[in-house]
Amino acid sequence: MTCHAGRDTLSPMSIKIVYRDEEFEVEPGMTIRSAVLKCGLLPEAVLPVVNGKLVTGDYIIQEADAIKLVSVISGG
User: Fold this and answer.
1) What is the DSSP string of 42-70?
2) Whole-angstrom Cα distance, residue 53 to residue 12?
3) Most CB atoms within 10 A, among 12, 21, 44, 47?
4) Rounded to two decimals, what is the model's pTM?
5) Which domain, by its residues, includes 11?
6) d(Cα 62, Cα 40) in Å, to the nearest integer?
7) For 46-67, how does the pLDDT look when each residue is reduced to its tens digit (9 = 90+)?
8) How far apart are CA 10 and CA 4, in angstroms?
9) Which 3 state secondary structure label does DSSP give 9?
10) Which value, to the nearest 10 degrees, does the dihedral of the CA atoms of residues 50, 16, 61, 3 take?
11) Residue 20: which of 76, 75, 73 has the closest Cα?
């Protein structure tokens, strides 16, 4: 279960995760939380959106998923 950043082509069993201007490649079957950690990001700092819907970190990534991570913004 590795995470590759900035690859132009996906291997047949890889899913693309988009975060800001970066793209990461992960394997299906892992949780969103695990994928975010493997990509070197903090799960607490992003909101996962899969196929246009907000999901929790325990969501298991499927082969056909389109995943985007949105930064959490807080302020006072």
Assistant:
1) -GGGEEEEETTEE--TTPBP-TT--EEEE
2) 24
3) 47
4) 0.82
5) 4-71
6) 21
7) 999 999 999 999 999 999 999 9
8) 10
9) coil
10) -130
11) 73
What is the chain's alpha carbon radius of gyration, rounded to the nearest angstrom? 12
State how far the Cα of 49 lies from the Cα of 67, in Å rounded to an integer.
6
Residue 76 placed within a domain? no
Range in 3-7, 28-32, 37-41, 71-75 the model is least confident about? 3-7
What letter does residue 31 receive in the DSSP assignment? B
- Say if 39 falls within a structural domain: yes
How far apart, in whole angstroms, are the C-alpha atoms of residue 39 and residue 31? 12
Q: Which helix (H) or strand (E) holds 35?
A: helix 32-38
Q: What is the CATH number of the domain that holds 21?
A: 3.10.20.30
Cα–Cα distance between 57 and 38 in angstroms, integer? 13
